[in-house]
Design brief:
two-stranded parallel sheet; 2 strands; carboxypeptidase activity; signal; protease
Length: about 150
């Protein structure tokens, strides 16, 4: 994906900022299409099938890639991809609610201290111990949880 790691186009930071409009999922999909075409060409594998795979955001990209470029990929595997996470389709906190519920379900004893620190990271360290989200949260120093 452009703008991550060493794949920063345009060289200088100033040039990058001038061209930040290219930092989007449509450009990423077009880049992936170009890469697939190029690799298949240099490997003389034009007739080889391609299945795109991804998890979370890259899973969304995989499913969108299959929709936009069906002639380049015969399938897509999207793991943990929040495909329906589109404005006005679900509640804004649905992701955090799901993650919290999943974490709680897989542990025998939900560790509120870990949950508290997770909440702090989500909300920039602004969550108080008396949070209405976690009314039974103890403000005592955290102890490691026993799963």
């Amino acid at each position: 994906h452009r703008y991550y790691g060493k794949s920063v186009p345009f060289g200088t930071k100033e040039e990058v900022l001038k061209n930040i409009g290219y930092f989007n999922s449509a450009q990423a999909l077009a880049d992936y299409a170009d890469v697939i075409i190029h690799i298949k060409k240099i490997l003389h594998a034009e007739s080889s099938p391609v299945v795109v795979v991804g998890g979370s955001y890259s899973g969304m990209l995989a499913s969108w890639f299959r929709l936009k470029y069906p002639h380049l990929a015969i399938g897509a595997l999207a793991s943990s991809a929040p495909i329906l996470f589109i404005d006005d389709m679900i509640q804004p906190n649905a992701y955090f609610d799901t993650v919290s519920r999943d974490f709680k379900l897989v542990t025998k004893l939900f560790c509120y201290c870990v949950g508290f620190y997770v909440l702090q990271s989500w909300f920039g360290g602004t969550v108080a111990c008396s949070s209405r989200l976690w009314p039974s949260l103890a403000c005592a120093p955290c102890v490691l949880c026993i799963p």
